[in-house]
Design brief:
It is a single chain. The chain is α+β, with helices and mostly antiparallel strands. It is built from four helices and two strands, in the order ααββαα. A two-stranded parallel ribbon has the order 1-2. The longest helix is centred in the first third of the chain and has 18 residues. It starts with 7 loop residues before the first helix and ends in a 6-residue tail after the last helix.
């Protein structure tokens, strides 16, 4: 399946680089207050996501014993972390 994927995005890195740089610059200036959750697998390390410094209402949860596919490696922990983040927001 991966070898047969012909999506436009991975074939055109120029657009990814340009738009990513533009989005990054905008994030630094605007510092949006939107609640943001970064989920990370414990096998990827616990270093904070660099975007957190420009997202004042963000947090990171590291789910142990999994890698990049944490929702498939640890689905119960993933769902729990996501619900703990989302449920309090329903009152806003």
């Amino acid at each position: 399946m991966v070898n047969e994927w012909s999506a436009w995005q991975p074939l055109h890195k120029e657009a990814r680089c340009y738009y990513a740089r533009e989005a990054w610059d905008s994030l630094k200036v605007r510092r949006p207050e939107v609640p943001t959750l970064f989920l990370k697998g414990g096998n990827e390390g616990d270093k904070p996501n660099p975007m957190m410094q420009w997202l004042p209402n963000s947090r990171q949860v590291v789910i142990p014993n999994c890698g990049h596919m944490l929702n498939m490696d640890q689905p119960a922990a993933f769902n729990q972390a996501l619900l703990q983040f989302l449920l309090p927001l329903r009152h806003h």
